[in-house]
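Thread: quick sanity check before group meeting

JM: Hey all, I'm pulling together slides for Thursday and realized we never actually wrote out the predicted structure for the chain we discussed last week. Dropping the sequence here so it's in one place. If anyone has concerns about the input, flag it before I start.
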Amino acid sequence: MPWLGFYSDDWGFLRAFTFAGDQSLTGLVRSFFEADANTRARPVQALYLAALYRLFGLDPLGYHVVNTVVFAGGLCAFYLVLRTFCENRLLSLAVVLVYGTLPHYSTARFWYAVFQANLSMALYFAWLYCVLQLLTETRRRYAAWAVGAALCLLGSVLAYEVFIPLFLFSLLVVGVKHRQLVRVSQARSSKPVDIVSLYVIPTVLIALCVLFKGEMSERGGAPRWSALSDALPAAVELTVGAYVVNLPRILATIFRHHFDGAVLGISLISAVGIYLALKRAAQRDSTSYPTRLVLVLTLIGGFVVAGLSYAYFFSYFRVGTGINNRVTIAAAVCVAFFLVSGVSLVGSLLPLRLRKVSL
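JM (edit): ok, ran it. Output follows.
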């Protein structure tokens, strides 16, 4: 879109880069830290934004192209994770598509100052994919996957901290998957090296990163665990509040004050294309569909974890819209599971002939 550019905090960062006495990458990173001492808690953010400035200067186009590529790469990694975990192509596509189109974290798609949110997301899913490969990998490439997982974890957390709760929750998910694979003889029972690489190293690295962030920044340090009482209202707001119950008012406002025929046309064409792609995937997918019990558990899990994964930024509670909504990019993963599970559960309760009509 021709009107994409720079906004708000972008100008402060660009000013620091432009007037830095040392225009090398190291000098730009140093100037970034000097502009805002709190950014020292996110060294990967500083390196990423400085590298983009070195490449594109004050031309916004390159920044947005790279951000879009990183965002798309993160969605691809998410899809690979879901296919590896559940082996159901239709559900994997549905969850990824819903997550990729959720408006909950819209500013992360357009705001240069928070492009690290998408980088953190992509590295989180890359880490989870590496960890899932460790469950079945032979000794020959085991070390490579383990090192890759550690680097992705550090890169994600040191770029942005909002995925820390999901990292910890994912360790439980990995444990469940490992037990399933052992039961069907597709993976060996846990050995000491597996315990260390799958659980101990990630936990230690996250703990060290939290301590580091607490030392480097007053605003991005340890989670405000005392605010966990807000987890329930946060979960309600994220899953069914901002963009379900409030959706009619949002749509009315859009059509009344921000109507754009081109955007509406592109949206309708995209919706039809997505429906046809999902319909084809449903017809070609021979894997079994989750039971209602699994869908209910996923629905509940998505709701609960969505609220808990908000722990790092409860000070931004109820930021479904507005400039700060980039902090929900991690919680939105759980929202996607909640919505897809809910729709699937409703669909499973419909008469068979109605289900066939939709397909």
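AS: nice. The two ends are 34 Å apart (CA to CA). The first helix runs from residue 9 to 18.
JM: adding both to the slides.
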